[in-house]
Design goal:
The complex is a heterodimer of chains A (121) and B (900).
Chain A: E1 7-11, H1 15-27, E2 31-35, H2 38-47, E3 52-56, H3 64-73, E4 79-84, E5 100-103, H4 109-120
Parallel strand pairs in A: 1-2, 1-3, 3-4, 4-5
Helix pairs in contact in A: 2-3
Chain B: H1 4-12, H2 17-32, E1 37-43, E2 48-55, E3 64-66, E4 78-80, E5 83-90, E6 93-101, H3 108-146, H4 151-165, E7 168-177, E8 180-187, E9 198-200, H5 204-212, E10 216-218, E11 239-246, E12 249-259, H6 273-337, H7 343-355, E13 364-371, E14 376-383, H8 391-403, H9 408-418, H10 425-429, E15 433-435, H11 442-447, E16 452-454, H12 456-462, H13 467-473, E17 478-484, E18 489-496, H14 506-559, E19 563-568, E20 573-576, H15 578-584, H16 588-591, H17 604-610, H18 613-616, E21 620-629, E22 632-644, E23 651-660, H19 662-708, H20 712-739, E24 747-751, H21 752-769, E25 772-777, E26 784-788, H22 789-806, E27 811-819, E28 823-830, H23 837-840, H24 858-869, E29 873-879, E30 882-890
Parallel strand pairs in B: 25-27
Antiparallel strand pairs in B: 1-2, 1-6, 2-3, 4-5, 5-6, 7-8, 7-12, 8-9, 10-11, 11-12, 13-14, 13-18, 14-15, 16-17, 17-18, 19-20, 19-23, 21-22, 22-23, 24-26, 27-28, 28-30, 29-30
Classes of the chains: A alpha/beta (121), B alpha+beta (900).
Amino acid sequence: MKKESKKILVVEDEEPVRMLIQEELEDEGYEVKTVKNGKEALEYLSSNDADLVTLDIEMPDMNGLEVAGKIREMKKPVKILILTAYSHYRSDMSSWAADDYIVKSSDMSGMKKKVRELLEV
Amino acid sequence: MEPFSDRFLEILNQKNFDDRLKALVDLVKKMSESDSVCVYVYEEEHKQLRLMMSTGPAPADSSKIKIDEIKSDLSKPFEYKDRLAIPIKSNEQLVGLVTIEMNKKLEEAQSAQIAELLKISLELEKKAATIAKLSAIEELDDELSTIPMNIDELYKKVLDFAVKVLNAERGTIWLLGNKELILSYVSGVSEDEIIKRRIEMGYGMVGWIALNKAPLLSTASKVDPRATLDIFSFPVKSTVGVPIIRDNTLIGVMMLMNRKNTDFYRTYRHFDEFDLSLLNSIINRLRMNLNQMELYVKIEKENESLKEFQKQSEDYINYQKEQVRLLNVLQKILQSLRHAQDIKNIYKMVLIGLTSNAGFKFNRALLLEKDESSRVLIAKEWLGPSSEKDVPSAWANAKFNEEKYADFAQYLYEEAMQIDISGGLTIRAKGKYFSYTGDYIFDRVINRSKIVHVTPALVAQRGEEFAELLSLLDVKEFVCIPLIGRREIYGAIVLDNKYTNVPISDDMIDILGIFSESVGLTIESLKSYAELVEKTVNLEKQRSSAEYFKDFLQNVLENLDVAIMVVDRENKILEWNRKSSELFGFEHSKMIGSSINILGPEFADLMNVAERVYDTKEVINLTDYDFKFRGKELFINAIFSPLREQDVDIIIGYIAMFEDVTRRHTLEIELRNRDRLAILGEMSAKIAHEIRNPLSAIGGFTQRAKKATTDEKVSKYLDIILGETKRLEEMVNETLEFSRHEQHGDFTMTSINELVQDVVTLYTEKFDLQGVKIEFEKSNEDLRVMIEQNHFKEVIINLVQNAFEAIVGQGAIKVKTYSDDVNVYVDVWNSGDPIPPDKLEKIFQPFYTTKTYGTGLGLAICRKIVEDEHYGKISVTSGQEGTTFTVQIPKDIQSKGGKS
């Protein structure tokens, strides 16, 4: 069963992780665009739309939280999912511009579940 | 003719002899009818008839008719010089003669009448003279009785009087002296008429009278050869003399010479017996007067001596009065001194008392104070007028002030308060000082406690030896008195009467002697009192400050958070403060005076160290000394200081100070751990992050590879990779969990009982299956506290899981909740093997684990949550009866700082 293709922008500075996320999400049937950092993400979004953005927090130059803030300033109807290697951000998430967050894991099912939930809403 | 009796009375009534004779002549004239009448009076002594009165022509040269010249018989009238002479006879005694004209005649009866009248007239005249003399004596009596005279005046007056009354020409008084008679008083005798002034007894009439002590009457008619002796140069016709005898002793002789004519007619012209008796009575009066005078002199003398005596007693009374007054003054001065506060006022009172009019009345008083160290007297105050011209105003002022007070002591006291004597004389004396060693005056005054009275004679004799003082005083007389106390001489006072020059009496010196001692004693007692007061105050101060310091020290000692004990050489405990009791558990009362050995063998090592101060004499410091005491481990800092005897370098004990640094020590260790943990946390986070990404990629792609392969062997290998990756990821997760230190969760008011119940319920079945019973002993109270629910639950889960893991085989877990006033507690007990103490203390350290599997971060995270987030405490005890973890959370988290 082929889902209606939703467009996801993956912002991840580490190549293997970026590839993994892309492949996993594409397996799920999403149209995935990847960029290496926040700057590229904002450039992309300024001329393209996306249904969801996954953001790594720890990135050079501009961290994921900042990028989320900038995206929100674009007033685009885009969901933002934070992917983080830290587990301790969770209680502070309410103040973030992101819609949700998930701790990175080798088990990608958690992430895929979150993405599905966010896009279903 | 009128009757005879009438004529008789008429004649007698006449005032005097002449008038009576005139009346008699007139009567004869009438009787005889002769114009010429002469009346003669017969003078028996001279045997002659003297013409006394006549009328009409009288025959010349017929003033005296010598009897023997008359040839005719005198018994009948006869013719005499052509006149008829009629003899006047009374009782056949010839009285006189009347001559009338020849042709006239007088009856016999008539001549008898005339004779009686003449006779009576003559007798009256004689009596009148006697009366005159007697009244003169009365006069003398009056005169002598009224005026008290000296003896010269008396003799002179009596002599003059005798001369006058006896109608003498001259008078003399010879007084007996050394067996000769000395001409002492004369009346009517001129100097050149005196030939002899001194005659021997028996010489001449005077000598005769003196020798015989008998009166003598001598007339020219009976010339006494003694009268002619060469005593006087004038002729002596008659004399009357009497001896002056008193108490049968001859004093002298009064001799009157040559009777003068007088107003009174007398037939005898020289001194007569009457004169002698008169003189005798005069002499009697003289004698009486002499007696009187002697008596008077005696009385005078008595009186004088009485007066003298009276004066003496008055003087004595005055002297006594003055003594008493001065003693009173002294007493008043002493009385006033008793009220004095300071020594300067005392001096003032003394000086005022000495100079004041109601006091000792000295003109000036100079006070010298003794200076023991330089052995001199220093002039302090000098009271009195500063110059002659200041005297009236100064004394008037002083008197005015003085009279305002009824009480002298009161005056002294108040005057001393008001008066300023720093000017005037004091300025002149300021800076003057006199050595009292070897000084003529002050050596006596100060070293021998003598009063020195300097008189003009002494000034003349030895003035040079105290010239300096003399030049200051500028007087010839003064007195210097010491102020004598029991212990010492306090100084001296120099007194003088510069302006009045009143000499200083011995009595005054005596009083000053008393003054000197009593004032000295008073000064001494006041000084002693002042010293005593000062000493008492100082002592009081010292005592109160000593007490204060003692209290202060005690207080400090008691409140110090350091245990202090003071131990002497005999190991006796001298001091033991509250903290010592707290730290070591011995009561203060039990420890003081006890031997240090009472503390038991655990102290032995420490005491051995302490006693080294006796050798080293230096402070010994022990830091973080691990002290096992009554099963507890304490960390203490100890300082042992030698206790030195004051001012002497002898060590009599030591002071031991113990500071319980156990908590600080553990805190330090904790802190050290924390620092380590913080760094570790940081690192872990970084590492975890760095590891997680590649792990995610490894795990992710392995999963993908597994899906992509059908080769069973590859698939099996990939599963192993996946498993290991998962283990790595778990470890990373825990590491990250531990290091999320900055985070505070949501604190909510949570029921601890409910939370614990949830956890217990969760594990009950699971543990039961493996033979472990879990039990919850719930507090009856609903314990609600502000906690971060999720974190706290994690702690409880962690502890319960740990408890389970500690049990090998079968066992039991008991969870218990309870509280006290401040905290809520959760105990998690397990029946597992005891944890060895060395491991127990490390149990909360990160990465410490006894388990084969596990990060070793579990309990570290628990502590982090309990202690850092909730300001509680987590602890563990372990023994044969099992191991208990206790979580303690403050009820009021806010009071402990709360969440930020």
